[in-house]
């Protein structure tokens, strides 16, 4: 018998109640939101449940929503896959923009280690309990997080660029 999205939703709401919400079917991916403080419990449940069996973490990433209210300015997005039924799900957990932090899932899925490091590197999200949370692609000396919307698109201090070559000045000749 094929695993149906209503079965996933029913099992989640039965176990976690109001901590899982905004269920939605987007093409072939079933998505929902989770309260950030329940993310490890929900992911562990999805992995270990004998019917659901979401044993594969496809992706983990961050999204910055600077115009949202402060407690929903960052989203951590998890994509899980059930290979037995070829079913995919997307989970979003929103976190605060003032102190972006969420529990690590590297103890549930070892593959999340580098994904969490990349999300930290680009968004500054602190994954609590991560075994080695440090920059993975950017320089260690970098003090900003380049995927945040407030990060400048270019360096205003550069002297090797001539704006005339980029159409940024109007020549009055």
From TrEMBL:
It is found in: Cell membrane. It catalyses: a quinone + NADH + 5 H(+)(in) = a quinol + NAD(+) + 4 H(+)(out). Its main location: membrane. It comes from the Bacteria. It is an enzyme of class 7 (translocase). Its EC number is 7.1.1.-. Belongs to the complex I 30 kDa subunit family. NDH-1 shuttles electrons from NADH, via FMN and iron-sulfur (Fe-S) centers, to quinones in the respiratory chain. The immediate electron acceptor for the enzyme in this species is believed to be a menaquinone. Couples the redox reaction to proton translocation (for every two electrons transferred, four hydrogen ions are translocated across the cytoplasmic membrane), and thus conserves the redox energy in a proton gradient. This is NADH-quinone oxidoreductase subunit C. The gene is nuoC.
